Amino acid sequence: TVKAPLPTEWVQRTVQLAPHARGCHVVTRQIYEAVPEIAEFDVGLVHLFLQHTSASLTINENASPDVPLDLNDALNRLAPEGSHYRHDDEGPDDMPAHVKSSLMGASLMLPVSKGRLGLGTWQGVYLNEHRNHGGSRLWLQTLQQCLEQLEQQPEIWG
Length: 158
What we know:
Organism: Haematococcus lacustris
Oligomer: single chain
Number of helices: 3
CATH class: Mainly Beta
Largest sheet: 5 strands, antiparallel
Family: Belongs to the UPF0047 family.
InterPro entries: UPF0047_YjbQ-like (IPR001602), YjbQ-like_sf (IPR035917)
Strand content: 25-35%
Strand order of the largest sheet: 1-8-3-5-6
Shape: elongated
Protein name: Secondary thiamine-phosphate synthase enzyme
Structural class: alpha+beta
Number of strands: 8
């Protein structure tokens, strides 16, 4: 039996973030500000895609101010600046920024539940700026909501 897909609603925006200093920055609030329609979504998904190769996104603890500092320090130990890289077109922080971006990733998929991101109590979304002067950053934010709830959950365990 083939069932027709449930109707969905989509919202997509390109968001320009103000320049951030090198380091890890909690940006959860910017997600809500960019797409306030999240508040109207009961069940959905939000996808964030950072359109850059020298910054990244991740989820981590947002309660302690030490976490972003320690996270940035750890990334600097994993991919230190130095003359051991071939690619240094834009300076000594160029290739280490690309390595950090690949390690952390350029996208996140987050659940939306009852008008809020489905993050845990201590979780926040981070923009990790890996360049000394990265400038403003763009992310593409896509929000999807199922307009009808399944009346019956499919039995998956037989």
